[in-house]
Amino acid sequence: MKKRYILLIVFVILMSVFIYISTFKIIEIKVSGCSKVNEQVIIDAVREQSFADNTIVLYFQNKIKPIGDIPFVAKIDIDFVSKNEISVTVYEKSVAGCVEYMDGYVYFDKDGIVLESSQEIIEGVPCIRGLNFTEWEMGKKLPIDNESKFKSILSITQLIDKYGLDIDGIKFTAENEIILYHDGITIELGKGDNLAIQMMNLGSILENLEGMEGILYMKDFDSNDSTASFSKKK
Question: Are residues 63 and 130 in the same domain?
Answer without folding.
Answer: no
